[in-house]
Amino acid sequence: AQKITQTQPGMFVQEKEAVTLDCTYDTSDPSYGLFWYKQPSSGEMIFLIYQGSYDQQNATEGRYSLNFQKARKSANLVISASQLGDSAMYFCAMRVAIYNQGGKLIFGQGTELSVKP
Amino acid sequence: DGGITQSPKYLFRKEGQNVTLSCEQNLNHDAMYWYRQDPGQGLRLIYYSQIVNDFQKGDIAEGYSVSREKKESFPLTVTSAQKNPTAFYLCASSIGRQTGELFFGEGSRLTVL
After folding, report:
1. Contact at 8 Å (CB) between B72 and B91?
2. Tens digits of per-residue pLDDT, A28-59?
């Protein structure tokens, strides 16, 4: 079964420190995509970073990087130099292909990150 | 500005009433999606549409209905058959059938009284 698992319901990090949010996935499809989204208390979903299953290098976007370990089926998000504005829910998601119907994203349960001043 | 507009932002409904949530996009995206989010949980797919006049059930379609008569619009009706409709509803779109990145609206919060 295709599934995304986030095992950390909540995390705390000190401002300016780095933090890693865990994500593991399960799929038998050789072609897939992995995403991270941020959801502030306002409710909007903000796209952060994407990693394709065939990408050779780990994705990076500013302070965000994705630690992609294909053999372990993990796609952890690393946030460097945490800021107070990083406090939010973070969701890991995977693109699942559906034959002849394009694809859809399935989401993990989320991790609530709190940045302490 | 291009984006996705959901309305209303907050909605209250009495039990037994149907309610329709609006979702409009001006991004010229082919695919549109409806997700439901319950407190402390991830997003679950209700319905999705890859092209106009076509849509598929997601993981939790029971008690919901949709239409896709125009590329720009993908309204969701929460019917009285939905047993627990109080939730946060998010509409999203993506460029094409295989493109994964979703662009989200700001959401609609439905409360059943």
Report:
1. no
2. 888 889 999 999 999 999 999 999 998 889 99
